Each structure stands twice: as structure tokens, then as C-alpha cells.
């Protein structure tokens, strides 16, 4: 806190003022005195209200962009043979969920694989005339996967006796399509907690 110079009213006060160091005008301007303290300004309620309103507005903006600006999900009729139907996809998810947990080596996993294989065969049978669809069901006796990142970095996963389904969709009349592909991969097996 700043000390203001006191006017000399009496001799006792003048002797007391001589013993205490006084801050000169130059020290006050430069802040070189040891006993001069400057308090920081407190934020007003208006500043906090404006900051809170900006936070709420930004949060709503993110929500609006993610959930209100997305295209509406398509039914099977709307998607046709060339599009993707979210309603049909969620039907498959629900059917696989009804099987309960299906960990590796369980009968439930075999049923889940048969369901996915039947759905892939249906895609092949009802495909659009401009595409070729290949469905492959194969058995892997053993394999390994070395993890190079994440929490289990440096560890190797070893598996054996697993079945896999590969569905390849490519246009009939594009010669470069056989050389270029997008791979979409998914695990069908689950753990008991899933």
C-alpha cells in the first residue's frame, strides 16, 4: 500500500515521520520503494458473465455443428442399391448385440460370423449391376500382430484358429479400381464386459 506523506502537525509527529522513510514522488512513479505495493484489479461480475456466455455459446456451436448439420440417416429405400443406409446398419448391430458376448472361441462368435456371412451374401445377391462383389470366408490357423504404439507398445498378440470374412466391392468398368482399394476392418468378437 502506498504511504502518503503526512503533514507535520507537531514535533512528536515530525520526529516519528523522520524515523519512517518517506516515498518520494520519483519512487512512487518508478515503484523503487520496498514498501510500495500495487494491488491487482479484481475481475468484475460483468467480465465473468461475458466469459461464461461466450463459453456457453461456443459449446452450443460445437453441438449444433455436430448434431444438427449432419445429413439425415437414410432408409434402405432412400439409399437404394448405391447408397449406405444407417437404418439397415443399426439393424445389423442390434442383431449382433442380441447374441450376447461372443469372445474368441465361443459358439456365439460362430453364430455372429454366420450372420455376417449371410448378410454379405445378401449384399452380393442384391448388388447394383455396375459393381462386382466378392465374398470370401477363410480360416487362419495362426498369426501374430506386433503392437508398435499405444499402451501395449512392444508386445505381440498371437492368435490361432480364427475365421475371417472379406467382402470386396469394386466397379466393373473402372480398370484402375482393382489396383486401388479402401479397407474397412471390424472386429466381430467381443469380451464378456462388452
Shape: elongated
Report, as a whole number of angstroms, the end-to-end distance: 63 Å
Largest sheet: 2 strands, antiparallel
* Unreliable parts: 11-19
Radius of gyration: 37 Å
- SSE ordering: HHHHHHEE
Count of extended strands: 2
What's the mean pLDDT score? 79
The helix content is: 25-40%
Q: Within the largest sheet, what's the order of strands?
A: 1-2
Structural class: alpha+beta
| Portion in beta strands | 15-25%
The total of helices stands at 6
Subcellular location: Membrane
Transmembrane segments: 46-65
GO molecular function: metalloexopeptidase activity
GO biological process, one term: proteolysis
Features:
194 residues; two-stranded antiparallel ribbon; M28_fam; transmembrane; metalloexopeptidase activity; glycoprotein
Short description:
The protein is α+β, with helices and mostly antiparallel strands and 194 residues long. It is 38% helix and 16% strand.
Question: How would you describe this protein?
Answer:
It is found in: Membrane. Keywords: Glycoprotein, Membrane, Transmembrane, Transmembrane helix. Residues 7-24 have a biased composition (Low complexity). One of its GO terms (biological process) is proteolysis. One of its GO terms (molecular function) is metalloexopeptidase activity. By secondary structure, the protein is an alpha+beta fold. It is built from six helices and two strands, in the order ααααααββ. It has helices spanning 11-19, 25-30, 45-68, 76-79, 86-97, 107-125; strands at residues 131-146, 156-171. Strands 1-2 form a two-stranded antiparallel ribbon. The protein is elongated. The two termini are 63 Å apart.
